[in-house]
Structures are given as structure tokens and as C-alpha cells.
Amino acid sequence: MVRPLAPHLNISLPRGRLSARAAVGILVSTLVAFSACAGGADASNRWVGDHGRPVARSSPPRGPLAVTDDGLPPSGQLPPHPPGSSSVSAPPDAPSSPGAAGADLLSRIPTFPPAPPAEKITLPVGPAAAWLTHIPTSQKVAFLTIDDGWVKQPEAIQLVQAAHVPVTLFLTIDAIRNNPGYFKRLEAGGAVIEAHTLTHPELKGKPLAFQQHEICGSADQLGALYGRRPVLFRPPFGDKDLTTLLVTHQCGMKAAFFWKETVDKGVVHFQEGHTVQPGDIILMHFRPAFAADFLAALQAIHDAGLTPALLENYIP
Ligand SMILES: [Zn+2]
Questions:
Q1: Is residue 144 within a helix (H) or strand (E), and if so which, with residue range?
Q2: 107 lies in a domain?
Q3: Which of 11, 87, 135, 217 could form a disulfide with 279 if both were Cys (CB 3.0 to 4.6 A apart)?
Q4: Closest by alpha carbon to 173, among 201, 153, 145, 154?
């Protein structure tokens, strides 16, 4: 059995004329921002892979600047605007900065044939939400999912709008609360918003009430913010237990998802093989390299002869 692949987390100090103090501040902010990403921040020996070859990752240094093991910063250290976020200068519904996504970026968006009419899968009957790493289909489709929401770049909106491809966003309430309007614009561009907890904790092993608060609470808040209550869920770090799936079902959501490929810094990491397969679910994040990641994901789908399709259309 192939060990699930988690995305890389590579953090380096900025070079140049930055003072040591500024550099440390940026490092801390970076740690905080990336600590929230699925699989990208687990501090303790999470396996990451390079094309299926697992590598043990060691823990980051502990101390007053370290993030906690559950991937969250200690209380009070959450920055309102993670590094790379252009929401610092962009009001929630301000137009995108002119030229934020250059013509060169937009010209690299692959073109796809239309997605075929979706053939819905069958979900198991029972008290637990389905757990899916891919959609079991032979249709020539793949599914692009984008997690968290800490980094909010105008060019991401432009790229999603220009690509005309469906994407599913698994949003964390703490990551989006400073600018929910940003994701409304993505929604207008074809994205569908689903749940990814309130605070991005590790859920596996946590008590029922804790998981209910995180899972149901996030679906409730997203429903209130966007007018559509999520029907799908992704647990932070892709980690879950039976309680997670029972609670997901209790909270009115049908399925929870892992992934087959991850994208980071413009590189697609395959859990199995070297090609996107029909039905694969691809994971990326709202990160500073959004444009490179988005284009790499679409190119991989294109190279496999597949078309992006909407995950929700395959769930009954
Ligand atoms: Zn996440």
C-alpha cells in the first residue's frame, strides 16, 4: 500500500538586505501561514514524497516561535495577513490589480474539451460519510481542489476566471474570515465552496464534541457566508478517524476527501505513477505560488488527456 503523499513544506529565510529581525518575523509568519495547509504543516514526522518516494520530515524547532504540532499557531500569533497575501492592500471587493496576472500567465492556461455529462457514483449507505481518495470513474475527468485560504492573491481570481474550469475550495474559517468576499469572487468564477473546519486542527483521535464543533461549525458558517451549505468535507492534513466520518455525515455532508496528487511550487507530486488518472483528485493550496501550482495542475490534467470536472457533480 502506498503511503499517502503529503505536499512539501519548504521554508527558507529571505536573502538580501532584510534585517535578521525582519527575517525572523517573515519566517514566523510563513510558518504560521503554511502550518495551516493540509499535509504541509504537520510538524511531526509526516511522510512527504517526491513522486512516490517517501522521505521522513523532521520537526521544526520548538520554542516561542514554533507552531504547535496540530498545525496551528499558538493563540494570538495568527497574523491577519499571511505573507504573500495581497489582501493587505486589497479591500474585500476591490477590483483586481491591473496586470496582477500577466498575459504570459494567462496564455499558459491549457484548453480542454468540455467535461462529459457526469455519471454520479454510488455512496455507501450508513451512518458515516464516504471517504474518497478519488472518484471511481472511467470518464476522462480529474478534479482540482484548493484548500485553506490564507493567501489571497488577485491573480488567483483572474486565473480561475480565465481558465473556465471548475474547482472545489475546501476553506478554513480562520483563513477566510478577514476577507470572505475574495472567495465570493472565486465562486462567481465557477468555484464551489466546501468545508475544511473552523481552525484547521488535527481531528484524528479528538473527542466527538470537538469534531462536531469544528466540522459542523465550519459548514454552518460557510453556509451563512455564502448562501450554500457545504456538502463535502476535507479534514485538515487529510487525517481522520471514524468519528470524523460519523460527524461529517451528522452535519449533513455526504463525503470526505483525500487526494491522489498534490501541487506545490509549480510541481505536481504523484502518489502513484507519473500521470493523472481518470477520477483523480488533485490537491493544491492558496499559497504564494498559486499561479504556478494552478497552471501545473491544469497542465498535468491536460497532458493526461483529461478534462477538469466538478467534484460535486459526481456525488449523488
Ligand atoms: Zn488545509
A1: strand 141-148
A2: yes
A3: 135
A4: 201
Stretches in the chain below the pLDDT threshold 50: 1-99
pLDDT for position 178 = 97
pLDDT at residue 313 in the model:
98
**Residue 18: predicted pLDDT:** 40
- Counting the structural domains of the chain, the total is 1
The answer to whether position 301 is within a domain reads yes
Q: What is the CATH number of the domain that holds 296?
A: 3.20.20.370
The three three-digit cell numbers of residue 292, written as one number: 504556478
Q: How far is the CA of 109 from the centre of ligand 1 (A)?
A: 25
How many angstroms is it from 68 CA to the middle of ligand 1?
Answer: 15
Q: Is residue 31 part of a domain?
A: no
Rounded to the nearest angstrom, the distance between the alpha carbon of 194 and the centre of ligand 1 is: 12
What's residue 100's pLDDT? 63
Q: What is the 171 CA–ligand 1 centroid distance (Å)?
A: 8
Q: Looking at the domain assignment, is residue 36 inside a domain?
A: no
Query: Can you name the residues that pair with 109 across neighbouring β-strands?
Result: none
Rounded CA-CA distance 109/160 in Å is: 10
Question: pTM of the predicted model, to two decimals?
Answer: 0.73
Residue that the C-alpha cell 538580501 belongs to: 16
pLDDT by residue (tens digit) across 136-151? 999 999 999 999 999 9
What's the CA-to-centroid distance between 290 and ligand 1, angstroms?
Answer: 15
Determine the distance separating the centroid of ligand 1 and the alpha carbon of 11, expressed in angstroms: 17
The angle, 0 to 180 degrees and rounded to 10, between the axes of the packed helices 180-188 and 208-226 is 60
Rounded to the nearest whole angstrom, what is the distance from the C-alpha of residue 36 to the centroid of ligand 1? 5
Q: Which domain holds residue 191?
A: 92-314
Tell me, in angstroms, the distance from the centre of ligand 1 to residue 59's CA.
Answer: 18
Instruction: Tell me the C-alpha distance between 30 and 70, whole Å.
Output: 16
